[in-house]
Each structure stands twice: as structure tokens, then as C-alpha cells.
Amino acid sequence: MNIVFVGHVDHGKSTLIGRLLYDTGSLPPDKIEEVRKTCEMLGKEMEFGFILDHLQEEREQGITIDTCQIFFKTEKRDYVIIDAPGHVEFIKNMITGASQADAAILIIDAKEGVKEQTKRHAYILGMLGMKKVIVLINKMDLVDYKQERFNEVKQEITEFLKKINVEPSYIIPIVAKDGDNIAKKSEKMDWYKGETFLNCLDSFSLPEKKKNKLLRFPVQDVYKVDDKRIIAGRIESGTIKQGEEIVVLPEKTKTKVNSVEKLFQDPTHAEAGESIGITTEDPLFIERGNIICHPDNLPEVTSTIKANVFWMSKQDFNINEIITMKISTQEVSAKIEKIEKKINSSTLEEINEEKDKLKNNEVGTMIIKTLSPVVIDDFNYVPELGRFVFEKDMITSAGGIIAF
Amino acid sequence: MDYLDELESKSIYIIREAYKQFHDIAMLWSIGKDSSTLLWLCRKAFFGKIPFPVVHIDTGYKFKKMTEWRDSYSKEWNLNLIVGRNEEAIKAGIGPKNKLACCNALKTEALKQTINKHKFRALLLGIRRDEHGIRSKERYFSPRNQEFKWNYKDQPPELWDQFKSRQSDEEHIRVHPLLHWKEVDIWEYIKRENIPIIDLYFAKNKKRYRSIGCECCCSPIESDADDINKIIHELKTTNTSERAGRAQDKESVYTMQKLRSLGYM
Fold this sequence. Notes:
The complex is a heterodimer of chains A (404) and B (265). Chain A is of the alpha+beta class. Chain A has a six-stranded mixed β-sheet, sandwiched between helices. A six-stranded antiparallel barrel of chain A has the order 7-8-13-11-10-14. A six-stranded antiparallel barrel of chain A has the order 15-20-18-17-21-22. Chain A has helices at 13-23, 29-41, 56-61, 91-99, 116-127, 147-163, 197-202, and strands spanning 2-7, 68-73, 78-83, 103-109, 133-138, 170-173, 217-225, 228-234, 239-241, 245-249, 253-261, 269-271, 275-280, 291-293, 300-311, 317-318, 323-327, 330-344, 357-358, 362-376, 387-392, 395-402. In chain B, helix 2 (33-45) links the parallel strand 1 and strand 2 (54-57). Chain B is built from nine helices and eight strands. Chain B has helices at 3-21, 33-45, 64-76, 87-91, 99-118, 183-193, 228-237, 247-250, 255-261; strands spanning 25-28, 54-57, 81-84, 122-124, 141-144, 172-175, 207-208, 221-222. Chains A and B meet through helix 2, strand 2, helix 4, strand 7 and strand 8 of A and helix 1 and helix 2 of B.
């Protein structure tokens, strides 16, 4: 399971992760020794956060710059930690991290309470459709382990999360540097009756299997291998079988699956998640960006999309400007027709000025026109066809979720 | 699908994306376990026929066995093999006395020369996030400038499975399809797929190599693991890190960082 840690700068993410790795015995002694030596060289005490902040510059500045992944395991399963930075200028890295996570941990300093980045990160989690969220209220030692303060912060964050439709599964008081309520119950907070952080994490179930859903097979490429024309791609949902009828979108041409191809194997079918190839009965013109489905229950084919878009480039994005849009393997030119609503992602206040453009870190609900039709699905049903990126000047500049 | 199927499928997806977006691409094969796994995945991605060259950077200090192994399998798998050597530096006698200079001349420079000669726009590499702290900073698609410099402080965002698909003339892209694999995953997969692997990894006289490179800069670890099952068992119970036997990582706390910002793989 991939988990991402988010929250305001200095609220304790790196320390918590260092502690987690230490408590689960996931750190080789030579790595601990390396960190200890480095801390010594820099004239500091051993800091758990340094395990993550592996680059020299980060150590010196004391902040995490980029997303960073590390592994640990409990008795139940393996986890991949995606660390996310707290500084506002590194928001694109936080989104990169969060887009790869199954669950998110939001950390709040008990003394400081909910801050700007706490809100912005929580908002992004909501926008990305994150369902598994744990809130950790850290540095309880700084508020004398008091339940009253915990409840205040808990109420503050709960109210905010409610506005953005994020429902946290757990809210836990912790002290990351001492390990309170991380792997072991805290002796200093016996008023907390819930589970430790690790037990809460272990209680999450893995994402449901997608093989029982409708078939969605986006074409990645077509290869000529010997005398075969193999259509290659990954099945994003459903199952494909030899001999069955398929429809190629957006043109809606029909054919049958002649064979399912995998090297060293001779499969008759393949399911969601598998990278495979197929050959078809008729020599149709099939290319990257086509979506192969079963004849019944086709996804929507459209040129008008309503979506929530998070803009993360220093260059503004102007209405009617042509941009590249990528949805799964589909790539089309597109433009914003209208920005219906624009908000500040941390205060959630609506921005009414300059509604003809999106600026760095702004979120907008907008109507997008694609210059050729695209195949889309509800994000909650097939995420791969319900989300997209905009690419400008050869760099991903925005992420978006299609609103149905 | 089980766990290994998921790792495999994601890597194949990335390999195919990389080839689609950057046709002038090559794969770097060090003969080690990771790039040999990557090679296997490339064969699977393209149904047995890899449509791009496989590059081996030969420093002249590699284990002799590695060269024999390379030649024999590139024949068997019908690979388009390119061997890159910095002949000038080898002639000039640059060697492992100064490790940073040696790695830089015989590996990084040799790679630069090979890329320039063949005009590759992108390279597939078998690095993993859990190998070393700095490698955990990598993206699947990671741009480098002409001098091979990696601007890790300002990397482009990489959302979901949408990878960088265009590049400027100055850019060269490194693609890392194995980024999400762990060391033990590699061995579990080698076992399941029966991937031929060089025997330097298997213990002889209670010593084995856990990571291989140049003969002079690799030291074997104490181990009884003389087959794959024993290696997997060892990795599940060990608590020293994988590259503990690699000299360039130990030299100084920051050697690896320096090497990488200079373009080291």
C-alpha cells in the first residue's frame, strides 16, 4: 500500500517517517550510522527526519524538497511511504506524491493548529479523490498531552474537512519524536482510547479489484511482430477474452479478439491491471489513444468536459489558449471555454478577479473543449479515464478530475 | 494478479510509454541483476523482439565473467548490443586510485560519448528507489541537460501514469521502469521467471557479491547463499544495506550525490 504524508512545514512529517522506519525495524544499521555521522558533521543531535532528507542541501536547510519514497513493513503488509514536502513552492511535488498514494496521512502540530498548508494539502487530497485519510495531531508534548487541546484541533480540522468532503478515518494524538501512539500506545495520554497509528493503517483495506467492472483497454501502441499486428496496452478495468466481440472507440468500429498475447504464455483471457497485447480478427486501423470496450455499456465519447483543475505552473493558463490534454493514452488539443469558479486552495475563498485565467496553485471548475472527441468515464468508476493532465511547454502543468 | 504481476505490469507499461514517446532510445545493461531483470521485461514488453539497442558501458575493470556472459546472451536473445568504452581515458591510465575521477571518466564520460555517437534521446535504466537515499528522489521519467546534470530541486511533476512525453533539443530523458521494485522483489521475480543470472551473486567459500560493478570496487559480503532461495531468505533477514559493498558509496557521505549530479547512473 502506498501512503503519502502531508501537512504544513515543520509540523513533523519527516520526523514521523524516520520514527516509523525506526520502530518497524526498517532501517539498516549502516544507514542509521550514516545519518548519525552526518548529524555530527553538521553539529546537530541525531534527528529522525534526516533519514529522509537525504540530500546535503536539504539537511542544511532543514526542509524536504522533493517527494521521496521509502519502504517499511508491518506484520500485516508492506508499505511504501511517499514523503511530501511542506513548502508552498514545492506543491507540485506534493501533488506528484499524492497522485501515487492509496492512503494519506495529514499531520498537524498540536500547538500551532491548522495552518495554510494543512488546508491546501487537505484540499488537494479531496480533489484527487482520496478516501483513506488519517489525521495525526503531533507534538502533543508541547501542549502537556492535554486532551482539551487535542479536541480543539480535532474540531478545527474536522470542520474544514467537512467542507471539502473529506472524511478522516482516524484522528490520533501523537508525539512523533518519542514514538507515542505510533507503534506503541502512549502512557502519557491514557485519555486516548483509540488504536495506535500503525494499527489504524493496517485496518485499511486494499483498493477493490477492478476485473469485475466493464472492459476499458486503452491502446498504448501497435507492434508488428513477425506476421502479427499486436495491439499493446494495459487493461484498466474488466476482462478481455479470446473470441469475444469488442468495440474500438471513439470510432465505434467492431471486431473480435483473435488472440490475447503475452510472451512465454498462451493466455485465453486477461484482466484489469495486466499489460498485454491482442490481435483482432479484422485488420482494422487501430492506434494509440483508442479505447477498446465491450459492445454494451460504452463510456461517454465527448468534446465538452466539465472538470476541476489544479494549475501548478508559474505561467498563467488563459482562457481559449490551446493546450495538450492527456487522458490515459489519449492525447488531444484542448482549450478552456469558461472558468465557472476559481478558488484559493487554502482559504477556499472564491476568487472573482481575472476569471479568464488560472494562476499557480489556483483551482478552477471549468468547461473544457477538446478539438477532437475523447473517451471518458466517471473518476470513481475507472480513475484512469476520469482524470487527465495538461501539458504546456513540454511539462505537465496541471492535473484535473472530470466532474460528472 | 499477484504482487509480482503488478510490479511487472507497471514496468512494462512504462517501457512501452518510453519507446512510444522517444523512439531514439536505448537500454543500459550492466549485466547486474536489476538491468538483467529490466532486459527481461523489455523482451516481454515487445513480445521477444526489443526494438532498440542495448548498451553496455565497459570500464575495462569489469569482472571478466561479465563480458563473456554479455556476449553469450546478447547472441542468444538477438540483441542489438552496443559496447561503450572511453578508450582515451583507459589509454591514459585513469584507474580506481581516485574513485570519483575513475567513475566519472570510465562510466559517465563513456556513456556521454556513446549517447552522442548514436544520438540517443532517452535511456532506460534499472535503478530502484530503495537502493540509496538519493535514488529515492527520482521520477520514472527524469530529464537531464546536455551536460547530464540532474536538477533534482526542480523536477517536473509526474501525475498518475502520465509521464513526460516531450523533450527539448537540449534534454535527454532517463527512464526508470524498476523504480518501485525492492531488492527482494527482483530476486523473487528472477526465481519465478527463471531469468539467467551471472553466478557472482551466488556464494562461494562463504562469500558472495550482493551488488556488482567493477571488480576492483566491489567487495563480497559474508554469505552462505549459494542459490536463489537462500538469497531471498538472506535478504528477508538481513539488516545491512544493499550497496554496503560498493566503494563509491562509502568514500564520503556525499560521493553518490556528487556522482549523480555529474550524470552517474
